[in-house]
Amino acid sequence: MAQTAMSETYDFLFKFLVIGNAGTGKSCLLHQFIEKKFKDDSNHTIGVEFGSKIINVGGKYVKLQIWDTAGQERFRSVTRSYYRGAAGALLVYDITSRETYNALTNWLTDARMLASQNIVIILCGNKKDLDADREVTFLEASRFAQENELMFLETSALTGENVEEAFMQCAKKILNKIASGELDPERMGSGIQYGGAALRQLRSPRRTQAPSAQECGC
Ligand code: GDP
Ligand code: MG
Question: How far is the CA of 25 from the centre of ligand 2 (A)?
């Protein structure tokens, strides 16, 4: 399909971020989501910085534009421009590393301060496949998520378990917030844009409807 016609194929575009300590598997999660396979270390140096994919969420087509830190987090210097205007984020720790879990509060502070105030965040306890080396229990992480109003899933970029679900749940929550009026896509820095499909419906007499809050299982 021609590039110019692409925006016709989705209703919304959301800017997403993947944040968390180095080594937690952020690049692998992005790769697994886009390519549906595990990124082995042989292509480590390529450093995917960006990926996009159109998903169907309850009948709405949403284009996710996902930014990876591309190694910036190793120097604790993730820039403001990286955060600016993000609608959603995957906040990643490694279930086999308490150090990465302890760093979550700092990541959250930055995300809420530097991204959109209304950013929707899903906490991902990655490397679920390494259960024998676990240092962080499911229960304590779910409590942390609840206290900080985050959604939560344990994922594995290796097996692919819950990877698509993580992106999907976050997108679903954003759509619900648009439907309830809690999020205004037209506000500057919302991280949300209309695609051609939604614009066509907006111009027609019957206005577009995002899925109702009741349809959401998250
Ligand atoms: P990033 O620094 O957060 O982007 O982390 P990477 O995606 O580069 O992954 C860091 C290391 O963890 C690499 O050696 C990956 O192969 C490994 N890794 C990433 N995700 C998983 C996972 O779900 N399970 C296992 N067993 N290893 C993983
Ligand atoms: Mg990386």
Answer: 7
Say how far apart CA 67 and CA 16 lie, in whole Å: 6
Q: How far is CA 125 from CA 23, 141, 172, in A?
A: 13, 8, 20
Q: Structure pTM?
A: 0.87
195 CA distance to ligand 2 centroid (A)?
29
Classified as helix, coil or strand, 199 is helix
Ligand nearest to the CA of 26: 1
Contact of 49 with 43, CB cutoff 8 Å: no
pLDDT in tens, 108-146: 999 999 988 889 999 999 999 999 999 999 999 999 999
For residue range 102-114, what is the model confidence (pLDDT) as tens digits?
999 999 999 999 9
Give the number of whichever ligand sits closest to the CA of residue 30.
Answer: 1
